[in-house]
Amino acid sequence: MVFISQGITIECKKPFGQFLVTNQPYCIINGEQKKPLKWKERVSVPLQPNKTYQISVKYPYIGEECGVVNFKISVKEGEIKHLLYNAPKVVSSPGKIEKKGIERKTEKGRKTKEVQKRKKETQKGTKEREKKRQKFCKYCGAQIEVDANFCKHCGKEI
Q1: By mean pLDDT, which of 2-6, 63-67, 115-119, 151-155 is the weakest?
Q2: 24: DSSP letter
Q3: Domain assignment present for 2
């Protein structure tokens, strides 16, 4: 992997059952620049900051372009956006692109990572943490503080 100061990285994945897809994917930037990608590897694509790019990711299969996904993206100075391309299960269907995270250089030159999790995972994790923090009185069922020794509702010792 080539290290870049700003741009995007694209990791390409295909479904397990697509062993007949042997050709490597590629992306086309603004309809003219072709960048080869690889399955199961993260490939860096350097981009100029503060410009909007039209990017198309696809792969060849039996002489046709399959799993096409088109998207627009722009990056800021010192920013690297990590993307994941998922090939479709049916080769004639469009692929999917996901944002996996953003990496920014701070003023001191150190890199910081901001990982963006999916909404479902975040909501699930939040609910589980809330359940662990909640404590209920075994006598009256009222919610009490986690470190409390007495129930404020019924006054019994816990």
Answers
A1: 115-119
A2: P
A3: no
